[in-house]
Specification:
The chain is of the alpha+beta class. The chain is 23% helix and 24% strand. A hairpin with a 4-residue loop joins strand 1 and strand 2.
């Protein structure tokens, strides 16, 4: 029976480790959606008691939170905001017609960026330069958007069309805050177009971002 020398075994183990390492690194960079808590658990939220629906926001504007992404969106002019919708009622609510808007302190109105908007900015970052960068080195996307970045965007975006009774849906909205200094200070978020099971539109939701900014650090 052939018996490998200890040195040969060591070299083989090293080779396997080197070959597998890139795969492990790639797997480690896969985007994982944050576990959503009930919307009332977030400092920045608005409750509609009658309909038993709560909407909450959790901006990912700091480096320690934004590290869940492989792309440093803040360096491309975007602020990712985690949108959480909780339905504590007994009937489903529809989100297919919802419209979100971020209104800054100086009354600038910003709609969420589309998937195409985000991808276009990543490929052509010189089109706009944010005054609100996160403290990262800038990673320029060269030669078109890579598959990993595209899949991350698709996985992160809020896509829920309905929220079943006693459940929560969540995802990210990306707002283009290029050339806006401190865009969340004094800002308000509005959500319209949420409908009940009969198709009746609920009163709009309004959330002050000051609730997030002034919340005690965890």
């Amino acid at each position: 029976m052939f018996r490998a020398w200890p040195g040969a075994r060591l070299r083989a183990a090293v080779f396997v480790g080197i070959a597998v390492a890139p795969l492990v690194c790639l797997a480690a960079k896969d985007f994982v959606m944050p576990q959503a808590q009930p919307a009332r658990a977030y400092p920045a939220h608005d409750v509609h008691q009658t309909e038993q629906v709560t909407v909450a926001l959790d901006p990912y504007d700091m480096a320690d939170k934004a590290k869940i992404f492989s792309v440093h969106y803040g360096e491309y002019g975007f602020v990712p905001i985690f949108l959480v919708v909780t339905n504590d009622g007994t009937q489903p609510i529809a989100l297919a017609s919802m419209e979100a808007q971020l209104v800054t302190a100086n009354r600038t109105k910003i709609a969420p960026a589309t998937e195409e908007d985000i991808e276009r900015r990543l490929v052509h970052p010189s089109a706009s330069r944010s005054q609100y960068p996160l403290p990262f080195p800038r990673n320029k996307v060269k030669g078109g958007l890579n598959k990993g970045a595209r899949e991350e965007i698709q996985s992160a975006l809020f896509v829920a069309k309905a929220v079943e009774p006693h459940s929560t849906k969540a995802g990210f909205l990306f707002f283009d805050v290029s050339d806006i200094s401190a865009p969340l200070a004094g800002a308000h978020f509005y959500l319209t177009g949420v409908r009940d099971a009969r198709g009746t539109e609920l009163m709009y939701f309004e959330i002050s971002l000051e609730k997030y900014s002034s919340a005690p650090a965890k």
